[in-house]
Amino acid sequence: MINSPSSTPPRNSNNNRSQKSTTTPSRSSRVSSRKASLVGRYRDYRNLQIGLIKEQKKLICLISKGCHDRLQATNQDKAMAWFNSRQLPYTVVDGMNPDQRQKRNELFDVSGVRGNYPQFFFEYQNGSIQYLGNFNKLERLNESSNLPPEVLQRHLEIETWDKIFGSVVATFT
Predict the structure, then answer these.
(1) Is the pLDDT confidence value at 42 over 90?
(2) H-helix or E-strand containing 144?
(3) What number of other Cβ atoms are within 10 A of residue 159's Cβ?
(4) Cβ-based neighbours of 111, under 8 Å, separated by 6 or more
(5) Which residues pair with 131 in a beta bridge?
(6) Residue 18: pLDDT over 50
């Protein structure tokens, strides 16, 4: 028996799609909500970091005055020159000084990097120490500080010298 067109139910593919979309969110709305969630979490994270950036802190520079690696020695000198030219207060911990061995080892534990100089840290009022980074981090901050102001205003996530070191103090008040 051959089915006649009148015996089969009419197919309306548009009708089936509209029924589906009312019961299940479309792919684009799922992606949009996931993206909004991720963007929100990222903004919360950045706001927390910016809050930490504004908290008073001391800068600690872990260097080695007996460093024989030319690149590391040059990077140490550049970093100290940048800090001095910006009149940024800092404390030096010499990794080669036997009297500062305990402090050096504490800083190595915080950074997870041993024997690579210079390294930079922040010490907060509560005594906690945070690893900022190595010379490459400082160089990126220095370069990003030279970006045009309109770029920095559009991209608040860009870290600059002023944002990171703006709340560095010589002593806590």
Answers:
(1) no
(2) helix 135-144
(3) 16
(4) 62, 119, 121, 131
(5) 121
(6) no
